[in-house]
Design a protein that fits this description.
elongated; two-stranded antiparallel sheet; about 180 residues; mainly alpha; 2 strands; about 50% helix
């Protein structure tokens, strides 16, 4: 089959993919994803039946409701990391703490299938910092975006600021800071 016979894409898939990439870049996406995925084994394993031949095992614990609550909270915290990235530190620390509690409450954290992703996802959320916007086109020279009217980035970087301080007013700020 030649490339002429293939149907042409109208670019909507590419636009959607780039929009998703932009959305994903403005929040701790991978931390949220791992935290959401950590909640499911913690919720599911205490209520699951394991059958080997005619032998049936039930992995329920006395704290089955606790494992359900921990799993639901991990899913909610992962979604919070996605849709409220400002509260990523709180959600990350809470995810780490709930993952640690799941070791005791929920069958070793869903047999470590929920504990490890929850711990890693919480750590990723705590350590994530939003990036600075970059101006310029792909492949071209990029300069950091600065306040408008300050001139080129090179002029701002090479200014001698050794004699400026808030007390002498040379830094164009008032004395209150």
């Amino acid at each position: 089959m030649t490339t002429d016979a293939l149907p042409r894409q109208n670019g909507s898939f590419r636009r959607k993919r780039l929009a998703f990439r932009g959305w994903r870049g403005r929040r701790p996406f991978w931390g949220g994803l791992l935290t959401v995925l950590a909640g499911f084994p913690i919720m599911y394993i205490p209520y699951a039946n394991l059958s080997i031949g005619s032998l049936s095992f039930r992995l329920a614990t006395t704290a089955g409701a606790g494992s359900l609550i921990i799993g639901v909270l991990l899913v909610v915290l992962g979604l919070t990391m996605w849709f409220q990235p400002v509260s990523r530190v709180f959600a990350g620390v809470a995810g780490i703490l709930l993952s640690l509690v799941s070791l005791v409450v929920a069958n070793f954290g869903g047999f470590l299938l929920g504990f490890l992703p929850g711990l890693i996802g919480g750590a990723l959320a705590v350590s994530w910092v939003p990036g600075k916007p970059v101006t310029g086109r792909r492949g071209g020279a990029r300069e950091p975006a600065g306040p408008p009217g300050d001139g080129p980035a090179e002029d701002r970087m090479t200014q001698d600021l050794s004699a400026t301080s808030p007390s002498n007013g040379a830094n164009r700020r008032n004395g209150a800071g």
